[in-house]
Amino acid sequence: MGWITIGVVFVCFIVAVIFAKLTVKKPTERQGPFAVVLFLCFFLLITLSNQYALPEIKIWKEQRNLESSLQDIAVYQLIAKSDPDTYKRITKEINKSLRNRESNEQIAVRIRRIINELVGKYLPRASDDAIFTYVSVMVQEISELTQLNPELAYEFLFPQKGGAVRQSFQLRPELQKADLDALAEVIRTGSTNPHIVKDFSEAKLLLEKVIADLYKVYGNDLALLQNPLAPGIYKKKYCNMTVALFKEIFKMPRPQSCLVLRYMFSNIKNDSV
Q: pTM of the entire structure?
């Protein structure tokens, strides 16, 4: 029995005693009726507490513990500081998951979906180092997941298509940490010192050249990149070509590769791809 339960029981007993004294006149002389009222009131209060108060207190405690754990992770510290509205959404999702009695994995899925939205918001304006590091980690994740199960890699790229964001739990812990650390830098640089590009004409030409080079390798299959959500898409081939695309971009000088990456993720953000 935890201290919270003990405290609730104690409060219920005190309230029952007060109620019994107010209800039964001369309780010292009428100990029998007093004991009956005391017992019935205490039993009713305990029943109501178990049904309503204790579950709410338990949810509150678990939510506080989860929020405290999040504050120990750099990316969540940055979200709380730079994007308080998004952080409030995260805490609301935690509360919703706890009320639905979902597992820690399901809670993590809810949080990750919200974080994925931040990628589209901050990645196009993050620093060159931040965007390059984040996409490099992402490519490692896609590669590993494709080897494990192409379905997982496809869900990683398109969680809205694949359903639950379960793929991240299949990755090595060190790669999961690298992902969060890289995302933290994306949010930090994108929110405190945004890199705004107004003219992507050079990026378009550079990307066209990369696509032309990949066409020599993949031929007409490269058309899959233009329609990734098509029914029955060959997911393994699509994921492998996505990795190949980013690796070709990485071969460019850093400023050019980051310009192309900004262009690509700006388009994703605006749903124009």
A: 0.70
